[in-house]
Design brief:
Chain A is of the alpha/beta class. Chain A has five helices and five strands. Chain A is globular, with a radius of gyration of 14 Å. The chains are: A alpha/beta, B mainly alpha.
Chain lengths: 140, 935
Amino acid sequence: MLALSSLTARPITGKNIMAKKVLIVDDEQNIVISLEFLMQRAGYEVAIARNGEDALEVVGQFRPDLVLLDVMMPKINGFDVCQKIRDNPDLQDTKVIMLTAKGREVEVAKGMALGANSYVIKPFSTRELVAEVQRVLEEE
Amino acid sequence: MMLQGGIILLFSLAYIGFLFAIAYYSDKRSDAGRSVISNPYIYALSLAVYCTAWTFYGSVGRAASTGIGFMPIYLGPTLMVALWYLVMRKIIRISKINRITSIADFISSRYGKSSSLAGLVTIIAVVGIIPYISLQLDGVSTSFDVMWQHSELAGAIPPPGTAAILGDTSFYVALLLATFAIIFGTRHLDTTERHEGLVAAIAFESVIKLVAFLVVGVYVTFILFNGFGDIFGQAFQKPELRDLFTMKNAGTYTDWTWLMFLSMMAIMFLPRQFQMTVVENVNENHLDKASWLLPLYLLVINIFVLPIALGGLLLFPSGAVDADTFVLTIPISQGQEEVAMLAFIGGLSAATGMVIVATVSLSTMVSNELVMPLLLHFGPLRLSERRDLGGVLLTIRRCTIILVLMLGYCYFRLTGNAYTLVSIGLISFAAVAQFAPAIFGGIYWKTGNHLGAIVGLSAGFVVWTYTLFLPSLAESGYLSPSFIESGPFGITLLKPYALFGLAGLSPITHSLFWSMLVNAGGYMILSLVGQQSLMEHSQAAQFVDVYKRTQENDFRLWRSTSSVTVLRSILEQFLSRIRVDEALNDYAKKHGLDWSKDDVADAALINYAERLLAGSVGSASARVLLASAVKEEPVSMDEVMYMLDETSKVIAYSRELEIKSKELEQATSELRAANEQLKEVDRLKDDFISTVTHELRTPLTSIRAFSEILHDNPDLDVEQRSKFMAIILKENERLTRLINNVLDLSKIESGKMEWHLTAVDLKEVIEDALATLEQVIKEENIELETALAEHVSLTVTDRDRITQVMLNLLSNAIKFCDSQAGWIMVQLKEQDYTLSVAVSDNGPGIKPENQEIIFEKFRQVGDTLTEKPQGTGLGLPICRQIITYFGGDLRVNSIPGHGATFFFTLPVVSPTEAEADKEPNYASPIFANGKTNNR
């Protein structure tokens, strides 16, 4: 299910001409809602995927600059999605921030090893998350 | 005229009759328990059987040609006796324990009670001793001839052996000695190994021959001449006699060394010496006195050898008189008939003593080690079934005595007078020296084995035969003299006196060198290379370590079931009834048994019987006899090993270790399994905590995110604000529910749940639950159908928990039923004391492979790809735990696409129990179906 929604976001003048694109991947409805709100508020163009399969499909069409990727999803989990993105030469510039409720170091290490740019542990501070997204996007 | 033939014969017979009386008397004393021979002096005198016609006549002959060359034969024993405390004591101890009957028995017993080895030793002994017997015949018959023809002394004595057999003195002498030996050696029906009367007679003979020789010596030295100085002085005057005072003719030092070695072996291993020293020994301690008495005897009997020899040479300068006969011819020539007669009797004593003991020991060997084993092996004779085997044994022995003497006679006839007495005797010495490696090795070297002994003995015997025995026949002309001169078929390397070019040694030294080389060499090499049988191993240990063992911990190689009756009958075949009774009663007394009650012969008794029998027929035959008659249970490998104590300990240890290590292995694998289980439990717990953490973080994430959004964005419109607030509240509820569920589950699982038991009407519970959810069902437009039995029995349960189960099942049904046309049905039935409740929906259903998984923790099964199922993932697991706790069952029936039916059962209680159940807080509910719950 593809939900390209910028309608709910309030446009921020002067910043949306070259708005960066963020793909949100999570199977928790309420978390998706909060992330969508936060990214739109930060002036990004947002797309949403509710599971790993959708995410891989959307990533090809939507060409996000950054993917907020939940790890614990049924079927294809976040690690697999990250791996697939990194394996695709067309998506080399796509940034990935992993979101997980399992804050173990091993998991962080695994995500980073798979080529994630950053890791954010749930529950997160909304301000820090937005700042982290911005930081990663500005990385070269 | 004193020296008429008849008188000589009469004297001889009278003397023999007297000896017989002595033997008879001492046997009687022995039976009465007052043994005459049980004293060290008699023992020492009986050992002087070493001095035979060889000593009595031959030493003088030897001295007449070699001066002191006769001496090594007496120096050797003197040296050897000094070592007896070490060697002979051990042999005696071993022989007593094993009831050894002969030297053949001794050797065979050491090497595993081998019949073949016993036979070989017997053959060597018989063949080896034949020259020695012939020597005695020679000595005695010559002495007869000398006495007989004393009147013609000046003339030459017709050489013995030249007359026809009927006129041949030596033939009659042989017959006479055979009769004598039979009378003495085989008088008893009891064929035991010891002969008291014989020993007494032999000891007496030793006295006679010593006295006779001393009388002649004193007569020659002090009466005929004026003492030693006079004889030596006169002899020294004669140039041809002067050399006798030097070592010139006495033989080389090499020869002396070998002769001393030879006689050292002879004093131990000549069958008659072994018989007297070992077999007839009464008390081991007698050896101490004999150790100096025997050398003393040898010294005394040799004092006058040189004077008599020199006196004879001075008296008969022509050389016409054989020096071997000086002891007789000197007194006769001087008309001293009494002295001559005494000397004759002394010579007779020396010869008869040797012949009797030698033939007795040889006949024992032949009967025990050759004939009996053969007879026992030939089944058709049914020998073991005959009653009077003692008689058979005696007959065999008597025949053997005659046979041995006849062989001696034949040898005597064959060799004629080509040899001096001494050189004939040395051939026999060399034969018995072959026993040395096997015996010394046997008592000091545990590794020495049967094969080594057989090969060593055989090789030594073959070399002896080739280098001494055959040439002795050749020199007398019965084999071609070229055999000695140039070797068989002209092969010089095989010349019997210079084998492989080893020339320049005397025949005796040469033969000893080669035979000892192959004998000892073969014995050692094969012993080192070969293996020992178990029997051999045990015998070897017993022989070598004889001082370490007492008779009690003797090896018990018998493992039997036999009766005393059977044993008795076997023993009585060889021993007199009285002796058997005596022996068995002794045993019974010692072991506190009563034969009238106990008829079971244990291993110890059979062992005892074996030794008893060994004393009669030798150890090899005894074993065969008992083995054939006693039903021996097969001795298992394990048991034999057990008997070999060192080995057995090792075995026991290793077996224990094996068991221990098996146990350890088992314990280890059990521990490993337990550890795996613990790890699994640990892993499950880890997973659970990790999952719970995740499940807690998820609502917390939403709550925190929206709280922050609301806080940071005061400009949000009311609609958005209230939407976010609703999410926060909903996630809050979810969090609470989750925490409650986790707590419930951990309480149930750890057994800490508090159950409030009451008698519950399930219909009421269902109706309450439906009422709670009535609003939701209406809102969702779900069609509700109920089929509840009018009246159902009560069940004992926790009402709140069952309500929880009902609500959970109904909530799931509401959640999963068709979103457009939802339908739910609730049923309640009672059948066979069982209440059953079913909740059906028309949702997507559950695949068969997932129908059990949904009851596991956190294993929700999402049926859509996009929507994660709501809920904690703990609801159904908790429901199942509750139902199971109350003795019921919770399951699901579903066909995918056609909805699902969750149903559970609960047992009912009987009315009386139900009445009681109405009272709250009762413990340990008893259910109608008989199940008892222990919680």
